[in-house]
Amino acid sequence: MPYYPIFLNLEGRRCIVVGGGEEAASKVRGLLESGARVVVTSGFLEPGLAQLAQRNEVEWVPRAYEPGDLEGAALVIVACSEPEVKRRVAAEARALGVLVNAVDLPACCDFISPALVRRGGLVLAVSTGGRSPALARLLRERLEKEYDAAYGPYVEILGRARRQVLERVPNVEARRAVLHAMARDEAVLDLCRQDSRAEAEERLMRLLDDAVTAGGGRP
């Protein structure tokens, strides 16, 4: 089945995870990283989830799923072990127009979750469309090595520099040229790896100043 790749904005939105085991915990962590307001419905919680509930980072409904639990949800993930529960949750979700993912039950999924590499604002997603999750994990591990932790601050610095470019370089072609030059300058990434972020930003600002001096923008 071909899937349409998409990144969802779940900031502050109610997302429900049915299940309290390790698989559910993995899904909950991903939702929290996306800023979602997470509700976990399960009669038990594995230790990590229990800690999140104790810190009020997730809302815990300490019982099995019941019809009506999905009201107001933007998305639901069913990570319990009972196929019949997955089918019932999926049926209610679809009746309400709520996106649903039932782990290991493709017929009850509106979407699948890719293998992810997160480096701050940089998110790399890998999917085989459910054909080989093992290969997706292998590729993710390779990407984790290639795109190290320095990419987190690197992307943030590029984002701040981009805002300056948009303010100071009104010409579209000149703007595109300086943005591409910034992204291609590997010395900036090297400075981030050395934890020299101020120097990295200064280097990008010099590129911008050079572009402005060349007539592509305003000081």
Automatic annotation (TrEMBL):
Its EC number is 1.3.1.76. SUPFAM superfamilies: NAD(P)-binding Rossmann-fold domains (SSF51735), Siroheme synthase middle domains-like (SSF75615). Keywords: NAD, Oxidoreductase, Porphyrin biosynthesis. Residues 119-145 form the Siroheme synthase central domain. It catalyses: precorrin-2 + NAD(+) = sirohydrochlorin + NADH + 2 H(+). Residues 150-208 form the Sirohaem synthase dimerisation domain. Pathway: Porphyrin-containing compound metabolism; siroheme biosynthesis; sirohydrochlorin from precorrin-2: step 1/1. The keyword Oxidoreductase applies. The keyword Transport does not apply. It comes from the Bacteria. GO terms for biological process: siroheme biosynthetic process. GO terms for molecular function: ferrochelatase activity; precorrin-2 dehydrogenase activity. InterPro entries: Met8-like (IPR028161), NAD(P)-bd_dom_sf (IPR036291), SirC_C (IPR042518), Sirohaem_synthase_central (IPR028281), Sirohaem_synthase_dimer_dom (IPR019478), Sirohaem_synthase_N (IPR006367). NCBIfam families: cysG_Nterm. This is precorrin-2 dehydrogenase. It comes from Limnochorda pilosa. The lineage of its organism: Bacteria, Bacillati, Bacillota, Limnochordia, Limnochordales.
